Amino acid sequence: MSRKLNLRERYQRMTRDLAWEPSYQSKSDIYPQMEFEGIKIEDWDKWEDPFRLTMDSYWKYQAEKERKLYSIIDAFAQNNGHMNVTDARYVNALKLFLTGVSPLEYAAHRGFAMVGRQFPGAGAQVACQMQSIDELRHVQTQIHTISHYNKYFNGFHDFRHMHDRVWYLSVPKSFFDDAMSAGPFEFITAISFSFEYVLTNLLFMPFMSGAAFNGDMATVTFGFSAQSDESRHMTLGLEVIKFMAEQHPDNIPIIQKWIDKWFWRGYRLLTLVGMMMDYMLPKKVMSWREAWEIYFEQNGGALFEDMARYGLRMPKYWEQTIEGKDHITHQAWGIFYNYTHAAAFHTWMPDNEEMDWLSAKYPDSFDQYYRPRFEHWREQAEAGNRFYNPTLPMLCQTCQIPMGFTEPGDPTTIGFRASDFEGNRYHFCSDGCKDIFDNEPQKFCQAWMPVHQIYQGNCGGATVPDVLDWYHLNFGVDNFDYAQSPDRQHWQQWKGEAAEESDAPDEAA
Amino acid sequence: MQIDIKTADIKPIRNTFDHVAKRLGKDKPASRYQEATFDIQPETNFHYRPLWDPEHLLYDRRRTAIEMEDWYAFRDPRQYYYGTWTITRSRQQDHMEKNFAFFEKRRLVDVMPAEWRNKVATLLVPIRHAEYTANLNNCYMSAYGYGTAITQACLYAGLDHLGIAQYLTRIALAVSDGDTAVLDAAKTAWTDDEMWQPLRKLCEDLLVTKDWFELFVAQNLVIDGLLYPLAYDRFDTAISRHGGSALAMLTDFALEWFGESSRWVDATLKTAAAESDQNKAQIEQWADAWSTRAVEALTPIAVAEFGAEGEATLAEIRAELVTRAKKKSGLDLQ
Q1: Considering the entire predicted model, what is its pTM?
Q2: How confident is the model over B138-152, as pLDDT tens digits?
Q3: Domain count within chain A
Q4: Which residue on chain B is closest to A441 by alpha carbon?
Q5: pLDDT beyond 90 at B93
Q6: How far, rounded to the nearest angstrom, does the alpha carbon of residue A176 sit from its chain's CA centroid?
Q7: Among positive and negative, which fits the CA dihedral A489, A494, A495, A498?
């Protein structure tokens, strides 16, 4: 009988053993991006493979998952599965997902292909390449799942075009552009560790549980199907940090700076997810505050305790996120309520039951700061004065969210920071975003700022309808309050519900 | 009797996404391949120049000398998106698993003459390092190439090459009763033996080639187009004549894959060459230059396999590649 190799040995032979020490070309020419970030790797052989998957078993497992997933997507479409969601308002969460998140899966696919080619160790290469192709899987299965919704609802129809242009989509887009335009070590720290390992539960859980709670079986299915991929990606994230930390003590301050940066960037990005959880799900899963407590304060806290042995500490400004958990989602929803005439999804004010849920979940902030404002807006809307903000907002130069977040310790004052660089003044929503700029002003001064671009005349014209046209946003269809939306009308027709009479469309400002 | 099942009459308001409809026409339903592929890569308004390549945008058409009006003019004739690719490969993998099991259960290794077992170990097994190069090269094209239509297929090809390198590893173990010394010897041959050095140098030169489409031509058309017929097809034929036909069971994946992949490579080059005379000339120049080098690099291997007929065999294989490039892609190669 053949001598059987154990799993580790077999994987070693199947993967790392394929590489050799080059001599006709220098290693620095084959892997030209290894030096410039300052990370020191002395021995790539010390890389611990986070998972040991050869292509034969990869194909086997993944094909099994794909077969199941597509049979459910087919059944969903055939049975008009969209009719089973709790309410058509829910579909707006999916619009945010397809326009904001799915393109990031694509970006991750390309970014991991880059690092899968740039890292010199075959173990690290293969782990990154598998993540690259998994991410391609995710963007494609998401498109295929949501394709059905696109046939029946508005706002999905040109998601790729929108992702490159629409103001709030520059928040997720700039996040990934930032990571991909950095070097391979920063990319993988940003995405594999800071995002996938520390924060991914805060993206994945809300959307997928939100789908389950709201009767969206198709989305739940791709969520479940992606879960085993995600857990592989998380182990990669942890291995990357450990590996860099163990390779050289000089790496620690660099890694810490990246963790500080990417934690804050991830936190700002996830504000949009938090707002979705608290306001866009007709049937709520949990509040943003609760999610942050579980997934960051408890899990993240334990992780960083563990990281202390490498000399790594909690990300800078994490204390601000603890205070912020009572505020950011309400502030963000307020912003989108103001600007929903320029968005490809609908907003609305919570009904009484939802207001009470928010009061219960946010006992320290909702009744005091947000309920009065929201009730006022609701009254105004009911009186035919639905407010749409006619001016363009000022954006934070780093996270690109409109400057609407409040000062730590003072929820009635808008936070405001600024830095001067090469004769220009740049504005920020927070200390975290200002620090990120100040560390790399040459990079962040380049940001494609949607509001600046509109004022410079680069976005189709001088009026809001011109810009919306350039966004490929169907005026009066994709935008405005849910109450007046064709989506709602269709839903009521399909469900045989009578349209309420008071819902005559408002004129936009 | 026909029973009509009553279903709710809910009419869709559109058939597919706008960017897909723009390419297909409004009323056509889109295939999964089309929805998964068309225009999926970001095109414009990038926020920051890459620190690792400030001369270019994050996604930039100018990373190759090839110019296309529309980078989504490329079509994969296999229509692979992730789902169809992985399901196809898993089917082939099932088949290969049975082949390996059969080979081991029947002890077909004992039927192979020792001389030819040795040839497998010394002439076929070192090629797994060239397959690994092909993996990295296709990963490069996927990372820095332009347009999902072509870049997604490059990543499939990259992982396919990794799979083939891993099958070669299994073949090494299968013909040696699990003796890993075969792998060590093959690797030493790859790094040190004179015979393998031209091919290794070629591989290392490919790893520093910057133009991703040049790499596509060099790796996917030229190297694959010469190496597969030599190392698998001709070699299988020769070994079969000497009682080693069981080897074909173990190389089946590679040969089948080569036929399939060639359809994609040919279609891709046809589209690029048809775009302009400039593209066509550029591809031809690359293909000729790399073919000359590849033939040189493969000569010692061909001679070791076929002795005096080695060079003629290789010349014949190159002639086949020229014919294929003309017939399938409209290219005039030398």
Answers
A1: 0.96
A2: 999 999 999 999 999
A3: 2
A4: B48
A5: yes
A6: 9
A7: positive
Q: Please report the pLDDT score of residue A505 as a whole number.
A: 44
Flag whether B216 is in a domain: yes
Q: pLDDT tens digits, residue range A483-493?
A: 999 999 999 99
The answer to whether position A441 is within a domain reads yes
Residue A466: inside a domain: no
Q: What pLDDT was estimated at residue A504?
A: 43
**Percent of chain A predicted with pLDDT > 90:** 90
Domain match, A189 and A97 both: yes
Q: Which two tokens stand for residue B319?
A: 């002639």
CA distance B132 to B163: 9
Residues of B in contact with A490 (CB under 8 A): 13
pLDDT at B70: 98
The band of B95, judged by pLDDT with boundaries at 50, 70 and 90, is very high
Among A226, A283, A227, A217, which residue's Cα sits nearest to residue A77? A217
3-state secondary structure string across A424-447: EEEEECCHHHHHHHHHCHHHHCCC
> A383 lies in a domain?
no
Predicted pLDDT of residue A506: 45
For residues A398-411, give the mean pLDDT.
Answer: 97
> What pLDDT score was predicted for residue B56?
98
* Domain limits for position B105: 82-329
Cβ distance of A110 and B177 shorter than 8 Å: no
> What's the first-to-final CA gap in chain A, in angstroms?
81
Q: What is the largest CA-CA distance in chain A?
A: 84
- How many structural domains comprise chain B? 1
Count of alpha carbons within 13 Å of B26, Cβ hemisphere only?
2
Same domain, A52 and A147: yes
Of B45, B82, B204, the CB nearest to A448: B45
| Statement: residue A397 has pLDDT above 80 | yes
Residues of chain A contacting B41 with CB distance shorter than 8 Å: 106, 110
Nearest alpha carbon to residue B176 among B93, B97, B104, B253: B104
- Give domain status of residue B285, yes or no: yes
Do the Cβ atoms of B93 and A183 come within 8 Å? no
User: What CATH number has the domain bearing residue B299?
Assistant: 1.10.620.20
**What mean pLDDT comes out for the span B67-73?**
98
Last residue of a domain, one of A283, A300, A324: A324
Neighbours of B308 (CB within 10 A): 7
Instruction: Tell me the count of A-B CB pairs closer than 8 A.
Output: 245
- A178 inside domain: yes
What does the block give as tokens for A230?
């995600």
- Does residue A402 share a domain with residue A303? no
Chain A residues with CB under 8 Å of B206 CB are none
Alpha helices (H) along A308-388: 318-324, 328-338, 352-361, 371-382
Per-residue pLDDT tens for B220-243? 999 999 999 999 999 999 998 988
Q: Is residue A183 domain-shared with residue A300, that is, in the same domain?
A: yes
Owning domain of residue A423: 393-447
DSSP SS3 for A421: strand
Cα end-to-end span (Å), chain B:
66
What span, in angstroms and rounded, lies between the C-alpha atoms of B280 and B274? Answer: 7
pLDDT tens, position by position, A235-244: 999 999 999 9
Round to whole Å and give the CA distance between A287 and A277.
6
